[in-house]
Design goal:
Blueprint: E1 6-8, E2 22-26, E3 29-31, E4 39-41, E5 51-55, E6 58-60, E7 63-64, E8 73-75, E9 85-89, E10 185-188, E11 194-197
Parallel strand pairs: 1-4, 2-5, 3-6, 4-8, 5-9, 7-8
Antiparallel strand pairs: 10-11
């Protein structure tokens, strides 16, 4: 039922007398959209509501109601008289009939594992096998060395703005300079050159400059 669909046996549309009629529906499924106001009704105003009997395996989107609503509903109401009857018949379904009964006993895992290796004639008989499939479903050989996987894609890089790392500039130490000092004296090199010097040279008096006392002549 779609878009204001209506199955009706309603009486007293103009608020008059009359009882609601009877509706019998036998369908495998009844499906409606709840918001589309599709109704199955046997209503009345002054008289009694009718009887609605529905036999189906499933009913979806439409439900019984005591009075008409803006939704999809099934009604057998009366304004001034007796309410009608709504009877929905569905076959009894046993949900447990299709279920598979699972074993209730707990399996002992120790009984499923071989405890001892076979001996004697059965020593060469394998107990089982363990297969390791490599890339491309090719099993690796135990006699070959391990190799890389050139088919692997490189690691993805994160997208987004990168925050630059702030680095403080390294202070530059100026080279040590000898301060300028006013010349206080000069010296003469053996080759005859004159060199100005910062500190004066103390002169050592020579012994020949000392005054000798001449003896008095008699």
């Amino acid at each position: 039922m779609r878009r204001d669909g209506n199955v009706s046996a309603t009486a007293g549309l103009n608020e008059g007398a009359g009882n609601g009629g009877n509706i019998k529906i036998n369908s495998p499924l009844i499906v409606a959209v709840p918001q589309e106001n599709s109704d199955i009704s046997a209503n009345a105003f002054q008289g009694s509501g009718g009887n609605i009997t529905i036999k189906t395996k499933g009913i979806f989107g439409i439900i019984p109601a005591s009075s008409p609503t803006p939704q999809s509903d099934i009604t057998a109401s009366s304004r001034l008289g007796l309410q009608g009857q709504i009877n929905i018949i569905q076959p009894d379904v046993q949900p447990t009939e299709a279920l598979v009964e699972l074993p209730t006993q707990i399996v002992d895992a120790s009984n499923q594992i071989g405890q001892n290796c076979p001996r004697g004639r059965n020593a060469k008989k394998p107990l089982g096998e363990f297969v390791v499939s490599g890339r491309g479903s090719l099993p690796p050989s135990a006699l070959q060395p391990l190799v890389g996987t050139p088919n692997l894609r490189p690691l993805a890089t994160l997208s987004g703005d990168s925050t630059p790392v702030s680095t403080s500039p390294t202070p530059t130490i100026p080279p040590t300079q000898t301060p300028l000092v006013e010349a206080q004296g000069w010296v003469k090199t053996p080759d005859g050159k004159i060199i100005l010097v910062a500190s004066g040279i103390e002169a050592t008096p020579s012994s020949y400059l000392s005054t000798s006392v001449c003896p008095a002549f008699k």
